[in-house]
């Protein structure tokens, strides 16, 4: 895993939190929720390959 992925996740987190707060203060709580959900899905799509690789490594480690 590279450091770039960590920076991307941090940038998405900061951006989503700012957008969410702006939307909540303007009375658009539904859009704030959808923005948070979209950020979460984006980050999950980025880390799914790493989780898959982790499970594959664990499977090969304990294979008999």
UniProtKB/TrEMBL annotation:
InterPro entries linked to this entry:
Spore_III_AC (IPR009570), Spore_III_AC/AD (IPR025664)
TM region(s), chain numbering:
6-23, 32-51
Keywords from UniProt, A to Z, are: Membrane, Transmembrane, Transmembrane helix
Protein name (record): Stage III sporulation protein AC
Q: Which organism is it from?
A: Velocimicrobium porci
Instruction: Name the gene.
Output: spoIIIAC
């Amino acid at each position: 895993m590279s450091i770039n992925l960590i920076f991307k996740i941090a940038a998405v987190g900061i951006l989503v939190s700012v957008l969410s707060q702006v939307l909540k203060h303007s009375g658009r709580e539904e859009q704030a929720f959808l923005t948070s959900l979209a950020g979460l899905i984006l980050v999950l799509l980025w880390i799914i390959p790493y989780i898959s690789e982790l499970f594959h490594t664990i499977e090969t480690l304990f294979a008999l």
